[in-house]
Amino acid sequence: MNKKILLWLPLIGIAGSAFAQAAPNAAAAAPLSRAEVEKQYEGRFRMMDTNKDGSVSKTELEAAEAAAVKQLEAARAAKRTEFFNHLDANKDGQLSRTEFDAIDSNPVVAEPSANVIAKLDTNKDGKISQAEFVAPAIAGFNRLDTNKDGILSVAERAKAQPGR
Question: What pLDDT shows up at residue 24?
Fold first, then answer.
């Protein structure tokens, strides 16, 4: 069964778990402020807004998605190699690559950029402004900030992680 990965979720951080996992391992054990989240997503927006007009067009979004696909595919390849090496305990190279690749054969599939724009473009001008881009991340942050102090505590972030 193929899983559809919504590439724009990592781009904009709508999912609550994105806040729980916003920083790798040790940093995830630290509180995260609303200002830090806003700064992170404003930086991501600026990277996507390649012509610096204050909006992310369909073309810019598609380019960002293509870059995200490449990055995800490269990360998957590195994990497959690491896992292969881990499985090959005696290091004789006898685990076939075909068998190994079958373990993680789900393709990366992007949601059509028109759908992403439709979800984020609240003023319906056909582009995503910085405010439209950051708003879902802040809404997600606010949803997780249960005590409304403007900081995601370690406990609040842990509650947002799947499986906890």
Answer: 45
